Amino acid sequence: MKMIKLCDLASYINGYAFKPEDRGDVGLPIIRIQDLTGNAHDLGFYNGEYPPKIEINNGDVLISWSASLGVYVWNRGKALLNQHIFKVVFDKEHIDKNYFVYALMCKLSEMKTKNSWCNYETYYKKRL
């Protein structure tokens, strides 16, 4: 079996650091980690210019990497990516998206069971 590092499979586009005053009631939804995990209470919208690379659409693979590690397949229409979430752009190697999501979910699950520096959730819970 050929082993390939994640950085050699795809490009990982980090979301934009929207400011609180950027959030409004009209425009495209700003997707935060809470919106991926189901813990969102208020969805913010942005109605201005933005870098095209932070636009997400149905089928895009997203990875949350701050405080909550997770992999998600976006399915709620056109939106904008907030900071601390990567959009995976499969532009380096041919790989099945479904397999990538499955393999990464397995690896993240394994990481969560270990007490390592990568396990942000455990790190923060131990200090609260």
UniProtKB/TrEMBL annotation:
Belongs to the type-I restriction system S methylase family. One of its GO terms (biological process) is DNA restriction-modification system. It comes from the Bacteria. Residues 2-117 form the Type I restriction modification DNA specificity domain. Pfam families: Methylase_S (PF01420). This is Type I restriction modification DNA specificity domain-containing protein. One of its GO terms (molecular function) is DNA binding. The keyword Transit peptide does not apply. Keywords: DNA-binding, Restriction system. Gene3D superfamilies: DNA methylase specificity domains.
